[in-house]
C-alpha cells in the first residue's frame, strides 16, 4: 500500500511539473509574439541607426506653439508649450540639421526638438525646456543618431528601442522558455529512470 501511494504521489508530482514546464513554454511563446507585433515593428521602422557625434550650433526657444498629442487627435488634445529648436552640425557629413529627442518627437511635431507630455504643468514644462536649452549650450558635443541612407535629413538624440533594449525585451521570454524546456526534460528523465527501475 505504501509503495502504491508513493508511486501515485510521484506521478502527480511529475504531472504538475510537466504542466508547469508546458505552461512556461506557452507563456514565453506568447510573450515573444506580443513583443514581435509591438516593439519589433518600431525598431525596424526606425532609420536613425548609425551613431555619430553632433555639435550644437544654436538652441532657441520660440513662442508657444499648439500641437496635437499624437496623430488623429481631437481639438481637446491640442496643448500649447514653448517650442525648443536645436540645430547641430553632423560630424559624419558636416551638414547643419535639426535635432529631435526621439523618433516619436518628429512625428508629433516636426517644428520642435522636444515635445512635453500633455498632462504636465505649463510652468514645469517651461522650466524644463529652459533647462534643456541651457544644457545643450553647456554640453555642445554629444552622441546622436542619423540616417545613413539619407532619407531623413535630421538626427535624434536617443532611440526609443535601441538594440540593447530589444535584446533585453527578449531576455525574459528566452529564460522562461529555457526553464520550461529544462523542467520537461527533467520530468522525462525521471519517468525514464522510474521505468528502468520497475523492470529491474
Topology:
Layout: H1 2-45, E1 50-68, E2 78-90, E3 96-100, H2 103-108, H3 122-138, E4 141-146, E5 155-156, H4 163-199
Parallel strand pairs: 3-5
Antiparallel strand pairs: 1-2, 1-4, 2-3, 4-5
How many DSSP E strands?
A: 5
- How much is the average pLDDT? 82
The ordered H/E elements are HEEEHHEEH
Strand order of the largest sheet: 1-2-3-5-4
Gyration radius (Cα, Å) is 27 Å
Beta-strand percent range = 15-25%
Choose one word for the global shape: elongated
Report the helical percentage. 40-55%
Query: Would you tell me the structural class of the helices and strands?
Result: alpha+beta
Biggest sheet architecture: 5 strands, mixed, barrel
Termini separation comes to: 20 Å
The low-pLDDT segments are: 69-77
Number of helices: 4
How would you describe this structure to a colleague?
With 200 residues, this protein is α+β, with helices and mostly antiparallel strands. Helices cover 52% and strands 22% of the residues. The protein is built from 4 helices and 5 strands, in the order αβββααββα. Strands 1-2-3-5-4 form a 5-stranded mixed beta barrel. A hairpin with an 8-residue loop joins β4 and β5 (155-156). α1 runs antiparallel to α4. The longest helix has 44 residues, at 2-45. The protein is elongated and about 85 Å long. The two termini are 20 Å apart.
Outline:
By secondary structure, this protein is an alpha+beta fold.
Give structural attributes.
200 residues, alpha+beta, five-stranded mixed β-barrel, 4 helices, 5 strands
Amino acid at each position: 500500500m505504501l509503495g502504491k501511494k508513493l508511486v501515485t504521489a510521484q506521478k502527480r508530482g511529475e504531472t504538475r511539473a510537466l504542466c508547469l514546464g508546458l505552461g512556461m513554454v506557452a507563456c514565453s511563446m506568447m510573450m515573444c509574439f506580443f513583443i514581435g507585433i509591438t516593439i519589433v515593428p518600431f525598431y525596424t521602422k526606425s532609420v536613425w541607426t548609425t551613431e555619430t557625434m553632433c555639435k550644437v550650433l544654436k538652441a532657441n526657444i520660440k513662442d508657444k506653439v499648439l500641437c496635437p498629442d499624437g496623430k488623429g487627435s481631437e481639438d481637446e488634445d491640442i496643448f500649447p508649450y514653448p517650442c525648443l529648436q536645436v540645430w547641430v552640425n553632423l560630424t559624419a557629413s558636416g551638414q547643419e540639421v535639426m535635432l529631435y529627442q526621439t523618433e516619436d518627437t518628429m512625428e508629433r511635431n516636426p517644428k520642435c526638438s522636444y515635445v512635453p507630455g500633455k498632462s504636465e504643468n505649463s510652468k514645469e514644462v517651461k522650466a524644463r525646456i529652459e533647462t534643456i536649452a541651457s544644457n545643450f549650450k553647456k554640453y555642445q558635443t554629444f552622441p546622436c543618431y542619423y540616417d545613413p541612407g539619407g532619407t531623413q535629413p535630421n538626427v535624434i538624440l536617443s532611440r526609443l528601442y535601441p538594440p540593447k533594449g530589444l535584446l533585453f525585451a527578449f531576455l525574459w521570454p528566452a529564460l522562461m522558455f529555457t526553464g520550461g524546456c529544462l523542467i520537461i526534460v527533467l520530468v522525462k528523465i525521471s519517468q525514464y529512470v522510474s521505468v528502468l527501475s520497475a523492470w529491474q
